[in-house]
Amino acid sequence: MLWPKAVRDRLKTGGDREIVQSYPFRSACPSTVWAELIGNATRELYFGGYTSYFLWTQVPALTETLRRKAASGCRVRFLLGDPDGTVTRQREEIEGGALAVSTRIRTTLEHLARIEDVDDVEARFSTPADAINHISLSVFRFDDEALVTPHLARLVGHDSPLMHLRHHGGGGLFSRFVEHGEELWSRSVPMTGATACARPQ
Fold this sequence. Notes:
By secondary structure, this protein is α+β, with helices and mostly antiparallel strands. It has nine helices and eight strands. The chain has an eight-stranded mixed beta sheet, with helices on both faces. 32% of the residues are buried.
């Protein structure tokens, strides 16, 4: 009430202060943002995209970076969709693209197979019951920052919007989305080995 309207219009308050940037398309988010967030994380890297294959096209030398992060004590987790799951097949019919959803997942698994010997790198599949919730919302966490993509109808991930969030206390947007990712992870299915999962079916 005390601040002039011009000041209120320029300052973020409440839940808005956690929004660092928003993009109408995930592909509009510069690759440097992904690289910096991954590079700066020291405690927690959580990749909750249904396929997450695009990360290796966005971030140079990502496999080596993840290996170094895990070796330095950073927890690295990937939650992926089941390439043979019903939701995956349904999504492939919707998208009708040459690069199928299951192919994108297996591409990620092939990359992860190169670091499956690192103890602090974990990879799991979301459960069949959670698959529809997983494929509709991607959450990527980097310590106290996150990139979140709600997937719109028939659009693929890079055509869906993205929000860059920074944690400013409990109960905000950051916490809400991170808790969603953690809930899916808590019910996820451990993989027997990324190499085995990456093998063509």
